[in-house]
Write a structure and sequence with these properties.
The structure is a single chain. By secondary structure, the chain is of the alpha/beta class. About 40% of the residues lie in helices and about 15% in strands. A hairpin with a 2-residue loop joins strand 7 and strand 8. It is globular and about 45 Å long. Strands 1-5-4-9-3-10 form a six-stranded mixed beta sheet.
Length: about 210
């Protein structure tokens, strides 16, 4: 009788553990609920290649490393600096649209993605206001970027593995050309990149 009771107790205990583990798995697999409807502001940059069309196959994520959104917009529209991006996203999620996806703008520099060089000509640049070495992306920035990206991923059939950081495509270039000079910096951090990609993948499944 004792053996039967022990067996029943073991079965009950195992069943309880299984139910708890299933509950934990269900919690982890909950769909990503994100905020939408962020404001878009037109803020054109002159720093585009008027003789080229973007063959959109990827996305490069950056942070501005500037103290304010206003300062970032000044840099990204400076005719002297000749740097640009397609969209700059402020900490409250406001998107500053600087040129259409089809435009080629100067955000990647010396870069390699997959087997192709010169990422400016086949990627979209997204600049997040701030510096992820100092502060993480806000959830509004992540949600706003995903709202911007989802229709473009579908329209251009962008592979998720082609959504990368500036540091990653720069490192690819340096690996291909170890003797060439290529200034390096963290942009954005891998921690924030992984956080962003986790949210993006969940949003793509929902």
């Amino acid at each position: 009788m004792k053996k039967v009771l022990i067996s029943i107790a073991c079965i009950a205990s195992a069943t309880l553990l299984w139910a708890v583990s299933q509950g934990s798995m269900q919690q982890q697999e909950e769909p990503y609920v994100r905020k939408t409807g962020y404001q878009e502001v037109s803020h054109p940059t002159p720093n585009i290649d008027h003789d080229a069309v973007n063959d959109v196959q990827g996305v490069i994520l950056h942070h501005t490393a500037e103290p304010t959104a206003q300062r970032s917009l000044e840099v990204l529209t400076s005719s002297k600096r000749k740097v640009g991006t397609h969209v700059m996203i402020d900490t409250d999620g406001t998107r500053y649209i600087m040129c259409p996806p089809e435009a080629v703008t100067y955000h990647a520099g010396r870069s390699v993605l997959g087997d192709r060089e010169g990422c400016n000509h086949f990627t979209i640049g997204i600049e997040f206001q701030g510096n992820t070495l100092v502060e993480p992306l806000t959830q509004d920035q992540i949600d706003s970027a995903i709202e911007y990206l989802l229709p473009l991923i579908e329209k251009y059939n962008i592979p998720v593995q082609n959504i990368v950081t500036h540091e990653m495509v720069r490192n690819n270039y340096k690996a291909r050309y170890p003797h060439k000079r290529c200034f390096g910096k963290v942009d954005i951090t891998q921690t924030e990149y992984q956080r962003f990609m986790k949210c993006l993948r969940k949003a793509m499944k929902s």
